Amino acid sequence: MEIYLMRHGETRANHDLIIQGDSNAPWTQLTAAGRAQAAGMHDRLAALHPTQIFCSPLDRTRETLAQALGDVPVTFDTRLREIHYGSFQGHTQEWVKTMYPEWWHAAVGNVLSGYESVSGGESFTDVARRTMAFLRSIPEQAGPVLVITHGFVIRSALAGILEVPETETLLEPPNVSLTRVTRDCDNFAVWYYGR
After folding, report:
1. Could you list the active site residues?
2. Do 145 and 51 contact (CB within 8 A), yes or no?
């Protein structure tokens, strides 16, 4: 079975380097560029002929789906929501770098594993666990499955599939990019990431 993981379009938080996590605040909504990115994926997604579509319940993923494919049957799943960054959410990356430099990974532009000890956020392991539980729960079917979700969730899927303990050195996939994985029973393979 083919599974295509798609990251949402650009948000104001993405543009302004604000840590958004699982917030649904005004600054986490799609920008005009993000809406255009999503709309620009229409032909590519339609050509996949997905037999089932799953989506994170957050506004930015819902709007990405609506812009890309319009009103289509979809299943919303809370396991696809973005990581909860705790008290870091709503702050800029610069704020985290200044206040908690020991928990910031400059090369990747995200927090380091263990950051939850100071932020009260969700651990990398917990995100990987719920992401893999979701991927394993998709019913076997003939056609491809499309999943609209978030950058950290896609990183966590790769960590789970590749059986590496953390995702802290993996860059997030670009907005509206696709990551293709396949599943045969409980065996996963990654074909490409963030294209």
Report:
1. 8, 82
2. yes
Count of C-beta atoms within a 10 Å radius of residue 110: 25
- Given a contact cutoff of 8 angstroms between Cβ atoms, the answer to whether 21 and 93 are in contact is no
Pairing assessment for the beta strands 110-111 and 2-7 based on DSSP bridges: unpaired
Which residue do the tokens 């920008």 mark? Answer: 31
Distance CA 26, CA 110 (A): 21
Q: What confidence tens digit (pLDDT) does each residue in 11-25 have? A: 999 999 999 999 999
**129-180 pLDDT, tens digit each:** 999 999 999 998 778 999 999 999 999 999 899 888 776 778 889 999 999 9
Beta carbons of 135 and 146 less than 8 angstroms apart: no
DSSP 127: H
Residue 118 DSSP class: H
CA 23 from chain center: how many Å? 13
- Six token digits for residue 169: 């050195």
